[in-house]
Amino acid sequence: MININNEEITNEFLQTVILDDELFKILFFKIDIVGFINIALNVTLSENMIEQIFQKNIPNANINLLKHKNCPKLKLDFFIKENDKVYNIAMSHNEYLDEHQFNKLFHHRDFDVNISLAHNIKTPKMILKQLATLNNKYINEALCSNTNTPINILMQFQYDNEFKKILENNKTFKTR
Known about the structure:
mainly alpha
């Protein structure tokens, strides 16, 4: 028997409901901190809704919003300038950053951010090439799993037994 409580249902609802301005306004005044963290995962959030949630300044909600496809460019730029490690890692997972934002994150020279950038399939190839030159096992593992990693870099990893299994699952490498 499956044990589901009301909190689980509420959290799932907040993450998946199709939001419009009216429903968002109703929920905004009824949910608690956990509710904001969950609604921040909802893919139907608009820029305006995201801005309103940011005003609550709930760190875990902010993390979710910084990964969101509709996160406003100005908010991303603001948080990049803040240079907060946790927020930088979150933003490094966002596939909707522009090239300048990817570069700013990469130039923070943070190991954990670099791993996240190496995983992100939208990280510009120039940055992926620079990440490969760092020659770090964990970054290289991420690069091996990333279908956007240039094939010449993937080819270099094929001779390393540690990476063979990962490369076997990379569509780009398999179709070469």
